[in-house]
Specification:
The complex is a heterodimer of chains A (about 250) and B (about 290).
Chain A (H helix, E strand, L loop, with lengths): L2 H15 L2 H21 L6 H37 L2 H6 L5 H31 L5 H14 L1 H11 L4 H18 L11 H7 L3 H13 L6 H28 L5
Helix pairs in contact in A: 1-5, 2-3, 2-5, 3-5, 3-7, 3-8, 3-10, 5-6, 6-10, 7-11, 10-11
Chain B lengths: L2 E12 L2 E12 L3 E5 L6 H8 L7 E6 L10 E4 L11 H10 L7 H7 L15 H13 L5 E5 L7 H16 L3 E5 L3 H7 L2 E6 L2 E6 L1 H8 L2 E7 L3 H5 L4 E7 L2 E6 L2 H7 L7 E7 L3 H10 L6
Parallel strand pairs in B: 3-7, 3-8, 5-6, 6-7
Antiparallel strand pairs in B: 1-2, 1-4, 8-9, 10-12, 10-13, 11-12
Helix pairs in contact in B: 7-10
Classes of the chains: A mainly alpha (about 250), B alpha/beta (about 290).
Chain lengths: ~250, ~290
């Protein structure tokens, strides 16, 4: 079998198929939240607004799920690759480094795709949400592309090279990011100063783009540029840290 | 013989501490080279530099002419085990084989690494010794010409170690070059063509075990005889003389010469034993000495 396809196959098995953490935390947790706040705890929401709320909250939970996958699963997987010496093993073989990284990034994107589809299916089957296939597809596709900066945050965290630090950074970044960017509750419920920070977050920007697609509105370019800027900033930071670690030989145990 | 590793004027410091100083050596094809040294002497650092995992401060390293595809021809068994979760032994071996153009056939690979019964086991569920076998299998998956083995038998039981060195002999007979470090010096003694001692930041000895023995070796000669001690005391090569009743025990730097000088008395000697120093004790003697034998 072609080496690249073999890598994709192995990474799919270990990162997704055999990874209970992925199904429990990246998929089940947002699904439980979604069911809880769109089906069970909906007493204060007028019946006329319920469908819109269920739709909007679905977008939030898709992004929340991708946030968990992109940061926690990516950071933990890459850290595990280092601590298990998988990374070194690959470096010592003729495998080109771009193939090593690309095979992982594709799996991380697939991970987000699976959890997005899973949550959409729950919305369709449980809350009878109806959208055209084109709109569903566009929302999912936009989300997958829009989560690339989040994957880069996961890569950046993994460079801490220490399980305790990685775990701490995961928790310090993921949950505050979900809260202040309005994924758990409407951003308008927060103080103005916090709202202005939340609106700069890539998860808020992505949520806004998805909401525009959902409601057939024109996408605000400001948010697209915002996500591109996040990608550029985190990408540069990752390159600088990797170069520094290589220079200081912090990448070899 | 053609040179496949050439190291010239290699220097390495880490956080202002000098680790390797002006290292120079060459390795020819189809040799087993044992690199020995105390803990922290810099053996793994040297291997990491040769493998381009870390950089040197100065000097040049030429491995397999530094061709673009030289990684196709090298295999590495690192000191640390590779233990990836949620992957089986068979999957990681197949994956590693897929990186190479001419990998070792899968059946040969598991046969050589003694992994026949472990193919469907998850990597992280293997014992320490089994993980070493797997690390070895991964190092030879690409059918390399040059093999680096860093402490290959640490964590293996004695039976596995014996099998492992038999496999190394088989690989040598297939014209492989093997660069090995180990703390089990008695194992290296039986297999190495050449010993390099890394000490005080440089290669302080580079030669065969016989050459090291000439420099540092003392042999023990024992026998029983009713002859008088004065007959033997006059033999010049004896460095230490002990006699209890009819039992004699000498130490000498040159056992061959001593036995030759004892030839006139051989008819009156029984239970003659000549015991040469092990590589372990040669290394200890060498490390104690201050001389530079480069």
């Amino acid at each position: 079998m072609n080496s690249f396809i073999y890598q994709i196959n192995i990474n799919f098995k270990r990162i997704i198929l055999r990874n209970k953490r992925f199904f429990l935390f990246d998929m089940m947790l947002p699904i439980v939240f979604y069911l809880l706040y769109s089906k069970i705890l909906v007493t204060g929401i007028p019946q006329a607004d319920l469908k819109t709320w269920q739709m909007n909250y679905l977008i939030s939970m898709i992004i929340y799920s991708c946030l968990l996958g992109s940061i926690i699963t990516v950071a933990n997987t890459l850290l595990e690759d280092k601590t298990s010496h998988f990374d070194i093993l690959s470096q010592l073989t003729p495998l080109p480094r771009w193939q090593y990284y690309l095979s992982r990034i594709l799996i991380f994107l697939l991970l987000n795709l699976i959890s997005s589809i899973g949550i959409c299916l729950v919305g369709i089957l449980v809350n009878n949400l109806t959208l055209s296939i084109a709109t569903w597809s566009l929302i999912i596709l936009t989300t997958i592309v829009g989560t690339v900066p989040l994957i880069f945050i996961g890569i950046l965290i993994s460079l801490a090279n220490n399980p305790a630090t990685v775990n701490m950074l995961n928790n310090l970044i993921v949950f505050p990011l979900a809260m202040i960017s309005g994924l758990w509750w409407p951003i308008t419920m927060m103080p103005k100063w916090l709202q202005s920070i939340g609106k700069l977050m890539p998860t808020f920007e992505l949520s806004n783009i998805d909401q525009s697609i959902l409601h057939g509105k024109i996408i605000n370019n400001q948010y697209v540029i915002g996500i591109i800027l996040w990608l550029a900033t985190i990408g540069i930071a990752a390159i600088l840290i990797t170069t520094y670690q290589k220079y200081k030989e912090l990448n070899i145990e | 013989m053609n040179t496949i590793i050439k190291v010239e004027h290699l220097n390495k410091s880490y956080r202002k501490k000098e680790i390797l100083k002006d290292l120079n050596f060459e390795v020819d094809h189809n040799q087993i080279i044992a690199l020995i040294g105390e803990n922290g002497a810099g053996k793994t650092t040297l291997i990491n530099i040769m493998l381009n995992l870390i950089s040197s401060n100065s000097g040049t390293i030429n491995i397999l002419d530094n061709t673009k595809h030289f990684k196709e021809h090298i295999g590495v068994m690192m000191q640390s085990n590779i233990s990836i979760t949620r992957i089986t032994v068979k999957e990681i071996l197949r994956l590693t084989q897929s990186y190479y153009k001419n990998p070792l056939p899968y059946e040969d690979l598991i046969e050589l690494a003694h992994l026949k019964d472990l193919e469907s086991s998850k990597m992280n569920e293997l014992s320490g010794g089994q993980k070493r076998h797997l690390s070895f299998a991964l190092s030879i998956a690409g059918n390399p010409d040059l093999l680096f083995l860093d402490e290959p038998t640490s964590g293996m039981d004695s039976q596995s170690r014996t099998k492992f060195w038999q496999t190394i002999s088989t690989l040598k007979s297939q014209h492989k070059t093997i660069f090995v470090t180990s703390h089990y010096l008695e194992e290296l003694e039986a297999i190495a063509d050449r010993i390099m001692i890394l000490q005080n930041k440089s290669i302080e000895f580079d030669g065969s075990i016989a050459e090291l023995r000439t420099l540092e070796g003392e042999s023990l000669v024992e026998f029983d005889s009713a002859l008088l001690p004065d007959l033997f005391k006059s033999i010049p090569d004896i460095t230490d003389f002990k006699n209890v009743g009819n039992h004699y025990q000498f130490t000498t730097k040159n056992a061959e010469s001593l036995v030759r000088q004892m030839t006139p008395y051989l008819n009156a000697i029984s239970n003659l034993k000549v015991q040469q120093n092990s590589l372990d004790s040669l290394f200890v003697n060498f490390s104690k000495g201050d001389a530079n034998y480069e």
